[in-house]
């Protein structure tokens, strides 16, 4: 509810500790089983994040990186479960992604993982992937998304019309690379 010029507002761990139910939900047997099936190893729960994407520019803020095309680097396989807490359309910061075969092709052309820097990947997607092949996940409040953010190029589309509220549960293997 606070006014801010930042592009994103996140709950702090202290705020989440006031009511740990949301954090604990990420430890449910169903979500841990889903993470284990996807990752192929016993999962590590990385935690929960509650966010408000705000219609403010991200340039000059650390949050600019999530609005560029990128991979997450916590592990080789990462499962994120994102739940929209508000209705999301193309103007309210939907998750955008490139399908796995196209993501893998772009990464192969980049060579070594060190060249996977967000700025280079963002440039590559903009140059090589037609708009029609960039997928957006929109939907009503409580839409859930399951995505491997360590393998699929993705970004948060900058909001232009309204804010997006979401909660994200993140999992990696117990022995991340």
Structure described in brief:
Helices cover 25% and strands 25% of the residues.
Structural class: alpha+beta
**pLDDT average, as an integer?**
90
Radius of gyration: 16 Å
How do the helices and strands follow one another from N- to C-terminus? EHHHEEEHHEEEE
Number of strands: 8
| Count of helical regions | 5
The span between the termini is: 38 Å
Proportion in β-strands: 25-35%
Major sheet strand order: 1-2-8-3-6
Unreliable spans are none
Q: Any descriptors?
A:
single chain; 177 residues; alpha+beta; five-stranded antiparallel beta sheet; three-stranded antiparallel beta sheet; 5 helices; 8 strands
Would you write up a description of this structure?
The protein has five helices and eight strands; from the N terminus they run E-H-H-H-E-E-E-H-H-E-E-E-E. It has 177 residues and is α+β, with helices and mostly antiparallel strands. The model has no long low-confidence stretch (mean pLDDT 90).
Give the secondary structure arrangement, pairings included:
Elements: E1 8-10, H1 13-18, H2 21-25, H3 29-39, E2 43-53, E3 79-84, E4 95-98, H4 100-110, H5 118-128, E5 134-137, E6 144-147, E7 154-156, E8 164-173
Antiparallel strand pairs: 1-2, 2-8, 3-6, 3-8, 4-5, 4-7
């Amino acid at each position: 509810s606070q006014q801010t010029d930042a592009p994103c507002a996140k709950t702090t761990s202290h705020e989440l500790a006031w009511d740990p139910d949301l954090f604990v939900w990420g430890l449910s047997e169903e979500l841990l089983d889903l993470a284990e099936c996807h990752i192929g190893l016993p999962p590590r729960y990385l935690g929960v994040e509650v966010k408000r994407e705000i219609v403010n520019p991200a340039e000059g803020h650390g949050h600019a990186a999530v609005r560029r095309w990128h991979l997450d680097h916590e592990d080789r396989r990462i499962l994120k479960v994102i739940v929209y807490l508000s209705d999301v359309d193309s103007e309210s910061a939907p998750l955008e992604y490139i399908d796995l075969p196209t993501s893998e092709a772009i990464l192969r052309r980049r060579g070594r993982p060190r060249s996977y820097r967000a700025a280079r990947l963002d440039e590559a997607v903009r140059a090589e992937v037609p708009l029609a092949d960039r997928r957006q996940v929109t939907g009503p409040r409580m839409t859930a998304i399951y995505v491997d953010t360590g393998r699929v190029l993705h970004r948060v589309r900058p909001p232009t019309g309204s804010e997006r509220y979401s909660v994200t549960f993140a999992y990696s293997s117990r022995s991340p690379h």
